[in-house]
Amino acid sequence: MADMNNTALHTLLDVLKASEADAWEVTDEEEKGWEFYFIRHSLDQHRTRNLRAFTVKVYRKFDDCLGSAKAKIPSDASAEEMRRTVEGLCSDASYVRNPLYTLNKPAVASVGADTEEIDLKTVSGDFIRTLSSVPETDTEDLNSYEIFVSAIRRRFLNSEGIDVISVFPSSMVEAVVNARRDGHEIELYRMLKSGTCDREQLTRELTEALTYGRDKLIASHTPALGRADVIFSTDPARELYCYFVSRLDTAMVYRGMSDWKIGDAVAPDNLTLQAVRRLPNSSWNTSFDTEGAPLRDLTLIDHGKAASYWGTRQFSQYMKLEDSFDVYNFAVSGGTESAAELRTGDYLEVVEFSDFQVDEITGDIAGEIRLAYLHQGDKVIPVSGGSVSGSMPELAKAMRFSSECHQYNCHLIPAVTRLKDVTITGA
Fold first, then answer.
1. What contacts 14, CB < 8 A, 6 or more positions away?
2. Is residue 217 part of a domain?
3. Are 94 and 228 contained in the same domain?
4. Of 210, 215, 303, 411, which residue has the fewest beta carbons closer than 10 angstroms?
5. Residue pLDDT, tens place only, 229-272
């Protein structure tokens, strides 16, 4: 099988070298995976998968312009099928006119290979044992869950001579939790991604979901609070910090969609945000980005000030940056208060949204409340309905966040984030 795999890649490379492409990139990705489907805690079915495909991008140069086109090619495609696909890509690329830029070179993209094998049997067993031990009650339980465990081997090559390999785990759990009360029933859905299984975190996430399902059944309507403090302590909080990251993307800056400049104060003065090469148990612990650029630790925001841009080769080069890369993992630090200190006074803690978004261009935030806890004096009332809205450029000025952190796959962020004077409409 290994010889056949190498033969397919060599055939594709020969086709590219003989084509009209002035430059090219190939990502050869193999994924070996195990899948399990449970109803309640009974295994309904399971299967293995072994997938391989090439992602090919070709470039055509015309005077001071460069065009590109990209497509996937099955690993079992014939030489003629490969030739026709590459020929079509070369034609498509000739209709694109971007300012000239060059591809990454080996000297820039040389990194140590991550080639440690992934034990799918052990990882799968960890997930199955963890999910079977989630504490349930007579009225709250796991309705069903699916486990997907993968070992990914990604090899990247380009016409400049880069040839790098990275092997890493990628897992996902999809779970439906049920809660019942007085003849009413509710389901909550969870999709949890990670590298391998973190037993403690997975148990906590699903136990919280069972609690939220229970409280959703007794929730009152959210009152029209006007402006109030809102606490984010679950997955949607990531969007608040992704906003800061996106504003430093070279594509955003070059296109004029972000006006952030290095050295500008862009966040609370105690906030530091770093792109990190590795984050424990992330599903994105690869050595290089999709263009072969090596990943490394890089401070993007240093004590509230923009410190570095990041981005793809094209837009980074337009901005005279030669060693930039795409950001997958990031970590936030600098919180000076505990989660308990932030949870004082009156506030609304939203734990479930029907949808929550932060516009990366305008900074507008908007979310429909599915479940929140209204804290007024000594009272804590589950509420549902209504919405939150506001503007991150304004809200960030008084933003507070905890010293404790929580990891959501490839993002390590404060466990509790408190925004002041968020607009809250009632149900």
1. none
2. no
3. no
4. 303
5. 999 999 999 999 999 999 999 999 999 999 999 999 999 999 99
